[in-house]
Amino acid sequence: MSKHFKNIFGIVLISALLLTSCTKNDDNDGDILIRPTAEDFNKIKEAALENLTQTFQFNTDDGNIMLTSEKGVQIFISSSCLTLNGEAVTGTVDVEFVELFDKGSMLTTNKPTMGMLPNGDKGLLISGGEFFVDATQNGVSLETTCGFQMQIPADLTGGVDNDMTLWEGVIDQDGNLAWDEVERDGAQGEGGVFGEGNQYYGFFQSFGWSNVDRFYNDPRPKTTILVAVPEGYDNTNSAVYISYDGEDAGLANLDTYDSETGLFSEHYGLIPIGLECHIIFATEDGENWKYAIKAVTITENGVVTFTEGDTSIATEAQLTTIINGLP
């Protein structure tokens, strides 16, 4: 092979590598589109959840257990009520605990506060805290025959709100969480939770995800909105959320996506017209977060559009701080 031919071949090879490494942007339609996979996006959300998971350990011989979280939540578990396949448990028990009080953490873990209405629609919940509790032995989840209790500092979400009730988390086949209100039980307090002093006292019947919440209330006429995201993104590798201005402990999400139009939607028509809010686009980029935020005043049947040029890159901690800093 001649030296001249080798030089030409090298130039062609380098050019090909440069072309295949390009990322598409809105100004150059000739570049190759590179986007995260659904697995990439799921991994970054799972990593955020793992970073917020606290672990405890106790022995069933200790009887009634009290655990205290990093934010001061107290968890009370009766060892004598723990079972595995219907049999009483003895020995060492491991506990995983997650507490979410801010919308930044709710976003990075994909745990928005959307409650199920009787007709199947979903509405925004204002939260007194989202919690995950799992008791295990040798990696196998346990059950409790008498439930467990938590004492939750109300100043973490602005003080006691006596309209709060207890909700349990339901995760669908796509890994998205919605909240179902726990049936009210007068013997255990209103909806399983009540406020007294500067604390919420919650009575939980089973381990898993739970929430102290109430529905957001706004008398203004309602509408739905549509959100367009950059090309190559959909509901598998990105998400769209709404932060209502003035509400620090609630995060809505647009939970439907039309593959034909490429638009995200809150199709229930429950967003107040005139609401001042921030729409958030979130996805993964090189194990970091890619995001964009737009301040919006909701109009009837409005459409919000994000372009690639609107996006920025942040770590999990940086994005959490940015979201928590919204009005």
Structure description:
This protein is mainly beta. The N and C termini lie far apart (67 Å). It contains four helices and 27 strands. The strands form six sheets. Strands 1, 6, 7, 8, 9, 12, 13 and 16 form an eight-stranded antiparallel beta sheet that branches. It has helices at residues 3-20, 38-51, 103-108, 316-324; strands spanning 54-59, 64-68, 74-78, 82-84, 87-88, 92-100, 114-116, 122-137, 140-141, 143-144, 148-153, 165-171, 177-181, 193-196, 199-204, 208-215, 222-223, 226-228, 238-244, 252-253, 256-258, 263-265, 271-272, 276-285, 288-297, 303-305, 312-314. It folds into two domains: 47-215, Sandwich (Chondroitinase Ac, Chain A, domain 3); 218-324, Immunoglobulin-like (Sandwich), CATH 2.60.40.
